[in-house]
Design goal:
- The chain has helices spanning 3-12, 178-187, 194-199, 207-210; strands spanning 15-16, 21-22, 27-28, 33-34, 39-41, 44-45, 50-51, 56-58, 60-62, 67-68, 73-75, 122-124, 129-130, 135-137, 140-142, 147-148, 153-154, 162-165, 170-174.
- It has three domains: 8-74 and 118-175, Hexapeptide repeat proteins (UDP N-Acetylglucosamine Acyltransferase, domain 1); 77-110, no CATH class; 176-216, no CATH class.
- With 216 residues, it is of the alpha/beta class.
- 30% of the residues are buried.
- The strands form four sheets. Strands 1-4-7-10-13-16-18-19 form an eight-stranded mixed beta sheet, covered by helices on one side. The chain has a five-stranded parallel beta sheet with strand order 3-6-9-12-15, with no helix packed on it.
Length: 216
């Protein structure tokens, strides 16, 4: 086990199962768990978030208290489907993905970054639940409290507190009313800290009762 993994285990209670790979640029806020055979590269993982086995999370910023199942992948790279005759990168990229290129300058944007400086291409909010075998394309922002059903392919931004399924993923319902969602957006309970959560834990089992607690 690497020194970085050991440091996160000891200082922030991060649990790494077997054959987990993390990059030097990846950070963990604490109380995280990463499943067997998963790779997490150039990403930040919020407090309490866990990721299931065989997942591949690259260039992502993930919020707090997210539940990410097994076989979830962020997909890097885009190919042109219109105007440019060939979709092979040799015709639009100088990167030489196949070992050669026909062009001297890039004529197509291969990546869709949310934060170009840090090369972050996927943004996942707080308290998000992502089911097994989900693919998330570059440039996508998944809002707070959203649900992504198993086997979905996320090709565009996802509304906060929405329930989404399918290929491509589409909204089928909302978890709460608009008024309740606005309240949650203002309270941002995930930023309150563990002591506040423990003090109010009994209110978490009912959204109507939760909206009546103190708003400080």
């Amino acid at each position: 086990m690497s020194i970085k993994k050991i440091k996160y285990q000891v200082e922030r209670n991060v649990k790494f199962q077997k054959k987990v790979k993390i990059s030097f640029s990846t950070t963990f806020e604490g109380n995280n768990a990463i499943g067997t055979n998963s790779t997490v590269s150039n990403s930040s993982i919020g407090f309490g978030t866990y990721i299931g086995g065989n997942s591949y999370i690259v260039n992502a910023k993930i919020g707090k208290y997210c539940s990410i199942a097994a076989n979830v992948r962020t997909v890097s790279g885009l190919h042109p489907t219109k105007k440019i005759v060939s979709m092979h990168p040799a015709f639009f990229s100088t990167a030489g993905q196949a070992g050669f290129s026909y062009v001297k300058t890039n004529i197509f944007e291969e990546h869709k970054y949310i934060d170009k400086d840090k090369k972050i291409s996927v943004l996942i909010g707080n308290d998000v639940w992502i089911g097994e075998n989900v693919l998330i394309l570059e440039g996508v922002h998944i809002g707070n409290g959203a649900v992504i059903g198993a086997g979905s392919i996320v090709t565009k931004d996802i509304e906060p507190y929405s329930i989404n399924v399918g290929v491509p993923a589409k909204k089928i319902d909302s978890r709460f009313t608009e008024e309740q969602i606005n309240f949650l957006d203002k309270v941002k309970w995930w930023d309150k800290g563990e002591e506040w959560i423990k003090q109010n834990i009994r209110e978490f089992d009912d959204i109507e009762r939760f909206t009546k607690i103190g708003r400080s």
